[in-house]
Amino acid sequence: MKVATHIDKFRRLDAALTRLRADVDYELWVWTAMNACVNLLNAALHKSGLTDETDSFHTQVEGLYARPDRVTGTLIDAMHAPGDVMHAGQPALGTPLPERIARASTALAFIEDLREPFVRGGDAPGPGATSEWERAYGNCVRELCAVLDLAAPQ
Amino acid sequence: MNEGLHRAKAERTERSLAALDVEHFEAIIEGCMLAGTHWFNILLHRARLAPENADAMHAEFLSLGARRKVFLQMPAALGALDEIEALRTSHVRGDMPNGPEAARRALACLALLRDEVAAGADA
Known about the structure:
- The complex is a heterodimer.
- Chain A is mostly helical.
- Chain A is 49% helix and 8% strand.
- In chain A, a hairpin with a 4-residue loop joins strand 2 and strand 3.
- The model of chain A has no long low-confidence stretch (mean pLDDT 95).
- Chain B is built from 5 helices and no strands.
- Chain B has one domain.
């Protein structure tokens, strides 16, 4: 997608996150934080020229995109050079990342790794555990907003 | 995962969804996928289409053979989860128009999945 679209999506997801409590709503908090960060990551990768700013959407299958026909409103499968990434390192870009994007990707990977125990699995966060989750989200957002010359939300 | 844990996670995610508005359509569609997948897994386990130690993660990742069996036994539930998954491509990872309406569709599909589980319990 386009940089501006990713930023719009980030803002909506970040606004949704303010309605959720990480320690109570932890499944949806993790998923929403991840999606917010992935949108900023894609915007930063496009802006840095590391991935293409294409009018196509990543599907659930790595490397498979859906290209919209804006007239008919339908989606057509497509494969092309990396446009949007699905997750940190998926697909691997085969090139070193700039420092800020690399640090953001590490923070995003931390959030993504919460999915297995807390979203798909039966673990519940212990007392105080989610402050580390919120710190990772804040770090990821700050690094990527700096790449994008955006004011990070408070 | 057993039925009790699936149910607890689906119900907690539905409570989380209640804190959002349809303008937060990306988060709503994702929450419907998360909660809906738990309801779907309860149906799979009850129908002995998947054991409790082998939850389905996404309906589209079921093998072709498994999907044919699921379609025969619970077509409405499969259709509802497929629709939620399709909305993820078009409106979460994509920017097709009418996001709030897509969120309403996802919520309707989630309600259908929840109702299918309740109907099975009542039967």
